[in-house]
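Possible regression after last week's pipeline update?

I re-ran a chain I had predicted before the update to compare outputs. Posting the input and the new output here so someone can diff against the archived version. Not blocking, just want to make sure nothing changed silently.
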Amino acid sequence: MAQDQSSGMTADSPGTAATRDPLSRVALRQIALLAIAATVGFVLLMAALSWASDLTSSSTTSVGAIDVETGTITLSLTQEPPQLDSTRLTDSVSGMILGHVMEGLLRYDINNQLAPGVAERWDIRTDGATFWLREEARWSDGEPVTAHDFVFAWQTAVDPATASQYAFIFYVFKNAEAINRGELPREALGARAVSDLELEIEFERPVAYFDKLVAFQTYYPIREDFYLSRDGRYAADAVDLLYNGPFEITVWVHGAHVRLEKNEHYWNRDEISLNVIDFPYITADGNAALNLYRDGQIAVVNGLGAESLDQVLAERWPVRRYSDGSVWFFQINHREEHPTSNYNLRKALQLVNDPGELVYKVIQIPGYTPGESLFPTWLNGQNGLFRQEYPAPTVTPNVALAREHLEQAKRELGVDEIPPIVLLADDTPGASKQAEYYQNRLMQTLGLDIRIDKQIFRQRLAKAEAGEFDLALYGWGPDFDDPLTFGDLFASWNLNNHGEYANAELDAQVRIAQESTDQATRMAAFGRIQEILIEDVAIIPNYERGVLYIQDPRLRGVGRRVVGPDPDYSRAHIVAD
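New output (post-update):
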């Protein structure tokens, strides 16, 4: 799932809670001094970046960060949620909100383990699966959640008219891919409601990870009568959504305020401690968020930058950190009309990229590691960590060799100079600094004219989807707990492959990984995919993310995870002073 600067899928290893270890004051002081002594750094850029660069809030009066009496916590968002229609959702901010107000057949619990959701039991076989829904599951209007609601949502997602970028995640269903190509009607999907409480699924092929798929947001249910009643405005506003999760959206002032209140019809409402999760501030400004925290107005600040550490230390706030499961890279436009479609130009860019300099001199935040692969270091392989079993090919920066490839690219493109290259980036200050770092580095090493295209988050996503870039700074976090969530990202049919990279051998390896139930065979396929992406310069890895954050000590039980909504406040609780 496309990532933004302050949110992401977070854990050190799949199936376990994210690392959250308070840093000592001495360690933080050392970090701060190193940050001051080092080359002036820039704040990390993300691919899916913030909706608003200025602090905004609704006219609703804040009750402070924590209100024990009403069970309310107050937080800030980095941006407006771009898309709350589960069939069209692609970003982590929207996914975090939707994960609090919706629930699928399965969900992730506070320990990052799969747990029953709407389904109380299930049976997964080589040819298909059966889920039995709990009778007490209800929508926010009190009506029951039925198997028909899942079938309708899934048929809508694979319908080519929906243009869902996640339609591919249903390709394990019988006929799903053919439906998505327009070859069969949506009703041919291998999913049917045997009864209101029994859901039958037929597989296109055996699948080794299906239980992990059904917890993902695109698998959430949608009730057909409500969807049709919105006359094309489903999920456009709070009143245009029907909720079956722990909370429901009661306020959505676009660009200003989102408020979630406990859903009294949720089947497991007694497990939900909080009554209100309020987001009356939307800001991408880290200093503004810190000031709100200092003034007791919000309970959490995510994604602290190196430049924030002195203020944090001065305030003596306990700092937490966790390793982020996301990877960040240059997405490259491979369409023929773009200069970056030329292999030798891409190779030149690869050879001047220095992830170590980026991480240690520019970002300067503990937990970040230089990027080497699309597959992050935490992923499990057959008997251990995937990257230990299949090390990524090494790429050593080499400016002289890069310039040789650049000259070959000019000859192949028939130009004396490479035309200006458009670098798509977010419009936030931190994102701008990192884009400017690359602009300067590529000018100094290769003499390239880099034109930075700064966009607000929503427009940045739209331009990426439309292919209006040469290079795009991009981040991806896992959708489910299997290497395939990274491995199929650059398959030719994947609509999240915004640069339209196409490689027949890579596609074949993805098919092997999808269709085999033998782990050794699957891991070998992922190993070859990793090699192809680097050898062909399909992307250029930059880093894996780590995050520093501060949290009100009265707030407990916040879930931080690599897979699923993050942060997850749905099972959080408040302890009095």
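Follow-up from reviewer: compared with the archived run. The domain at 103-242 is CATH 3.90.76.10 (Dipeptide-binding Protein; domain 1). Marking as no regression found.
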